[in-house]
Predict the structure.
Amino acid sequence: MKSQDQNQHQNRSQSERSESILYLPLKRKWFDEIKSGVKKFEYRLYNDHWKKRLIGKEFTKIILTLGYPKKDDHERRIEKPFKGFHVITMQHTEFGDEPQKCFAIYV
């Protein structure tokens, strides 16, 4: 019979082995560009929502999806190792006419 300490250690070991995945749903244009290798970064506004999701977090991989597919729809999912991000200021039609501070996530 296992002690409580052994169970806690086993649970901790299992959770340490589990992967931390960043999911990013995309529009078709961006999904296709990433899939073809043309687009190297995915951008998200530097706001409270994305700061909570990214800053101080460690991910093992990134899953980019075309919209919100079912788990077994592999045609609409791209899985890659997570390579990090940096913060930039850029102007983009998706974010309006003015330059915006953004997360540039390596894909």
